[in-house]
Specification:
Length: about 220
């Protein structure tokens, strides 16, 4: 049932909403990779999975809270799905979280998502991600911190970058990461040149450079 609902929703969104064009700074090369995307609330995963040119082979990282209806209202308010203090904020605050609680769990569970945990179970997330990459598929990650969602993209969470170490240990290859800026106003996915995890360096030696390169790309 979940997969049928997901396919129906994807088809409906593609049919009744604006098409999104993908602009590549460099020609795309097939193979395992990570798309690192700016945060646009709950619409980010929808746009990337439903409309992105490579979306059919991608596995988005989705917070496990999104699969639990009782958790969604608090998560929606915390995650800033709309601009706090706006004219419509009171109405949105009273309606959107509860509509989302009814729709999102079956939609997400029918998708090819990877659940993200914020405790010791994070290793499950990382291991499942490596398995998807080994199948020559791709991941979609939204790493912006909550304060960056309200204004400038000054910094990203970095724990997920450990995938670079794990990928190299498992497959002996460098991990390729594409920064993506979702430009919803102009209906464009702007994909910057890939950023590579350098297996010859320790994580702490390259963390700042990786974050700087990724931030620059997702700013668009």
């Amino acid at each position: 049932m979940g997969k049928r609902f997901y396919r129906f929703a994807r088809g409906a969104v593609r049919l009744f909403s604006h098409r999104m064009k993908t602009e590549w700074e460099e020609p795309f090369e097939e193979g395992p990779c990570v798309f690192v995307v700016n945060n646009v609330g709950f619409m980010g995963p929808i746009e990337m999975c439903f409309k992105f040119s490579e979306g059919d082979r991608c596995h988005p990282w989705i917070n496990e809270e999104i699969t639990q209806a009782k958790e969604i209202p608090a998560y929606a308010r915390k995650d800033c799905w709309w601009k706090p203090g706006s004219f419509f904020a009171p109405v949105l605050n009273a309606t959107v979280p509860y509509l989302a609680a009814a729709v999102l769990p079956p939609l997400v569970k029918g998708s090819p998502y990877i659940p993200v945990y914020h405790d010791q179970r994070i290793m499950l997330t990382l291991r499942q991600s490596i398995r998807m990459l080994q199948r020559d598929e791709a991941l979609i990650i939204f790493p912006e911190q909550s304060n960056a969602r309200l204004g400038s993209h000054e910094w990203l969470s970095t724990g997920w970058l450990r995938l670079g170490e794990m990928w190299y240990r498992n497959c002996g290859r460098a991990l390729k990461m594409y920064p993506v800026h979702i430009d919803r106003e102009n209906h464009i996915f702007k994909v910057a040149a890939p950023v590579w995890y350098d297996p010859a360096k320790r994580f702490r030696e390259q963390e700042k450079d990786l974050v700087a390169a990724l931030v620059k790309g997702i700013r668009g």
